[in-house]
Amino acid sequence: MTAAYPTSRRDDVVDTLHGHQVADPYRWLEDPDSADTKDWVTRQNALTRAELSSYGERAWFQETLTAILARPRAGVPVRKAGWYFVGRNDGTQAQDVVYVAESLDELLAGGRVLIDPNTLSEDGTDSLGSFTVSPDGKYFAYGINESGSDWMTFRLLDIATGSPVDDVVGEAKFSEATWLPDSSAYLYVHYPSGGRSEGTETRALGAGELKLHRVGTPQSEDELVLRLPNERLYFDVDVTEDDRYVVLHIFEGTDPRSRLWLYPLVDGGLGEPVKVIDEFADEALFVRMSGDRLILRTDRDAPRGRVVSSDLSGSFVDVIPESAATLVEVRGTAGGLVTVSLVDAQPVVTLYDVDGGNARVVEVGAGGLVGLQASVKSDEVFVGFSTSVEPTVAYVVVDGAVRALPELVPAGASYTPPSVVVERRVEPGRSVPYYVISRSDLPLDAPRPTLQWGYGGFRIPVFADYRPGWPAWLAAGGVLVVTNLRGGGEFGSEWHDAGRLANKQNVFDDFIAVAEHLVADGVTTPAQLAIHGRSNGGLLVGAVMAQRPDLFAVALPGVGVLDMLRFHLFTVGAGWASDYGLPDDPAQFEDLLAYSPLHNLHDGTAYPATLVVTGDHDDRVVPLHSHKFIAALQHAQAGDAPVLSRIEVDTGHGFGKPAAMVASEWADLLAFAAHHTGLSPEL
User: Fold this and answer.
1) What is the number of alpha carbons within 13 Å of residue 636 lying toward its C-beta?
2) What sign for the dihedral angle of Cα 462, 463, 468, 472?
3) C-alpha span between 680 and 683 (Å, rounded)
4) What average pLDDT does the segment 583-593 reach?
């Protein structure tokens, strides 16, 4: 790189933390709205644009990603209150459009547009975050996220006419509108206005409130149902299909263990809660009722998961016992239950009677699970799968009979992805499974440029599924590696526990071990190996590149958690303590300091070529993580490889990003990776 890095002022800021003197010279970058930070962002973006524009690979990837994102697509249908809904995109639209119909056949024939999020903002950055339907089928309650923010505003449409209803509820987060049985009101999670900043979001969120909003009344009159003082507590709300109870799950941050309360529905409101489970001991998620008993998915005494029935005292009886497969989804159907279990991270869909008998495996598509939609009031189950090169394919399952629904996808431009081979391999030393994916006409008989992807956290399973960048990288001749790391959800709660808190280093060791195995097996070399991950996966990339800079040619940390000593002070960061711990705890502080990417960069070290990606409106993992990390990395870098920051304007953590922005970001990432691993896409 010929240009010099922009100057990043280093202030004399030092904290004394549990006996450690910890320097934080870039603390000033924590204020995203200051003139200094805005100027710094402008200069960083200018440098990155200049560098990337000099790469010959950039044009090929931009053209290819534009073609990929121009491919028409559709999501997984949803049936609610007698209506059918699906999101579609003809390939020219920034956001998916929601269509509605009164029957599945009508939906397959096209249906009618109910809401077009592309009309919500001029730049296409406002997106549809959630929607629900009132039980009487009259109202469509939808939440809008502005500029990629997690903040949500609820509005209503009359489904029959498509007309807007004069009813607005704001200052919501991590919520949908959960309707009462008579369709007169809905529950939502509100965060008081004091929790929202006037500028770019950074301040800690504060505690949420469960509120009841009656349609047609001002939000100021909404009824407070529950306020819990702990800012790390979150709510999930449901209503039993027999209209007897509101089901409330209370979570401590991102920890899957939950409390379970039932509010009796009486006289158009809520009675006093029955606290079925009132401690954070196990995962226990409501599925449906069976007479007077609750059907739950739980990991109590079952690390791989099981289905149980429970009375109101929380006494469990097996319905579907634990097996060698990992139970990840359970839904109620008119005929009983539908489950998704993972067998070596491969989803298997099974139907059961409500008592757990009459198991029938459903032969649907292979790959990654995209969505599962079912209802106790219907015998139709909708499921979606994708592969590394094919976006969502939806299926409808009725009494075990499977039908693919390609008609959902609108007509439009075509793109033919490369034919690929998917291999399942295991790193032998630590027994880490992973996928190796490559073009079928390019045998793995010599080392090739390789992109290694991982996440490893929050009990989230990782599949060899679709992301727009994968077919482009594979078409260019690169190898794609998808890793199943400890901390994820592929192999149950014990696998998750082995990669969190004091065990978090296991995630990084797993990823490094796979990289070393790829080199030993001749798949790639350190000079040809790029690594990528987002959010918690961005932390992964930041940590391993700091620990083993010699092993990788390219690092691509996206919207990553990179300052592990201050993450809990901003927006929803304190909620991640279940996986990371809290810096306020002396023992957990030592674990965090040992791997915090920002604090483990060392001056005079040759680091891989690095492109850090963030969004200036990310109010989940705030951009200060990426800003401080790249400033420190530019100061420390002793090698010739460029270390750059790509800061998207008017976008957040990634959800709802317009298609053109998605194409541009992937083109930059892959061109950067190709340029510094020697991948020539002109094959």
Assistant:
1) 22
2) positive
3) 7
4) 98
Give the mean model confidence (pLDDT) for residues 78-82.
96
The residues, any chain, with a CB within 8 Å of residue 617's CB and separated by 6 or more, are 147, 148, 149, 200, 201, 650, 651, 652
Give the chain's mean pLDDT: 94
For residues 683 and 676, give the distance between their C-alpha atoms in angstroms, rounded to a whole number. 17
DSSP 8-state symbol, 272 = P
Token representation of residue 407:
């008609």
Beta bridge partners of 385: 369, 393
**Token pair listed for 497:** 């526990």
Contact yes or no for 525/450 (Cβ under 8 A): no
- Pairing mode of beta strands 380-386, 83-89: unpaired
pLDDT digits (tens, 9 = 90+) for 319-346: 999 999 999 999 999 999 999 999 999 9
Contact between 626 and 560 (Cβ < 8 Å): yes
pTM above 0.70?
yes
CB 22 within 8 A of CB 594: no
Query: Can you tell me the mean pLDDT for 179-190?
Result: 97
DSSP secondary structure string, 373-435?
A: E--TT-SEEEEEEE-SSS--EEEEEETTEEEE-GGGSPP-----PPPEEEEEEEETTTTEEEE
**What is the secondary structure of 295-325 as a DSSP string?**
EEEE-TT-TT-EEEEE-TT--EEEEE---SS
Residue 184's region, left for phi above 0, alpha for psi from -120 to 50, else beta, is alpha
Contact between residue 596 and residue 627 where contact means Cβ atoms under 8 Å apart: no
Centroid of chain to Cα 206: 22
**Nearest-angstrom CA–CA distance, 436 and 478:** 11
Catalytic residues: 535, 618, 653
Q: Residue 219: left if φ>0, alpha if ψ -120 to 50, beta else—which one?
A: alpha
Query: CA-CA distance, 228 to 209, in Å (whole number)?
Result: 7
